[in-house]
Amino acid sequence: MPDQRTHVHPAVQEAGWLRDARRARLLSVATLGWLGAESLLGLWSGTRAHSVALVGWGLSALVEALASLIVIWRFTGARLHSLNAEQTASRAVAVSFWLLAPYLVLHVAHDLSEGYRATPSALGIVVTTISLVSMPLLGLAKRRVGARLGSAATEGEGTQNLLCAVTAAGVLLGLALNTIGWWWVDPAVALILAAAAVHEGRKAWRGHSCCH
């Protein structure tokens, strides 16, 4: 008789595990809603302020939303009890990391070649500040839930939220330091985040927990 442990989570009958699965799904739903608003506001404010940094940040939110959709898919219906679905979700989250990395590099290359510099935007500052505060809370909550569930997909989504907060900090810092001529801070942060995304994507593909 085949070993069913490869198909069914060993703790599926535990009430605590099921509560954490529902919590992971609800956290992802909440994140998806905010990322939708974040993306629209970032694109709108960035276009009005002619800020490529803000436009790029708004677009990157769409990639992060993909990870939330993956986790919602993972913990919905019959997939709730499937380790095969967990492996698929973990690898899909890895791909979303890898989509983010080349986007950041290409975005930096485009900005440098065109000579673009970030410019202040009141709405952009408000939106990025909210993300700077809220995304670490969501990210750490997902990483804790993901660790209890043994879900690398959930932990990977949490890591993306933490990267989102760092990106928001980079945008805010770039806007501030650009006023004193330190224009290079924004692209430097973007390249560091691209390297981190590649690293975290590799770990998510292998099903390992992502680091803080």
Give structural notes:
With 212 residues, the chain is mostly helical. The protein has one domain: Alpha-lytic protease prodomain-like (Up-down Bundle). The chain has six helices and no strands. The N terminus is likely disordered. Its main location: membrane. It comes from Acrocarpospora pleiomorpha.
Low-confidence stretches are: 1-6
Name of the CATH homologous superfamily: Cation efflux protein transmembrane domain
Determine the mean pLDDT.
Answer: 77
Please report which band the strand proportion falls in: under 5%, 5-15%, 15-25%, 25-35%, 35-45% or over 45%. Answer: under 5%
CATH architecture: Up-down Bundle
Brief account:
The chain is mostly helical and 212 residues long. The protein is 77% helix and 0% strand.
Keyword list:
212 residues; mainly alpha; Alpha-lytic protease prodomain-like; 77% helix; endosome; monoatomic cation transmembrane transporter activity; transmembrane helix; Tmem163
Please specify the SSE layout and strand pairing.
Blueprint: H1 15-48, H2 52-74, H3 83-114, H4 122-149, H5 152-177, H6 185-205
Helix pairs in contact: 1-2, 1-4, 2-3, 2-5, 3-5, 3-6, 4-5, 5-6
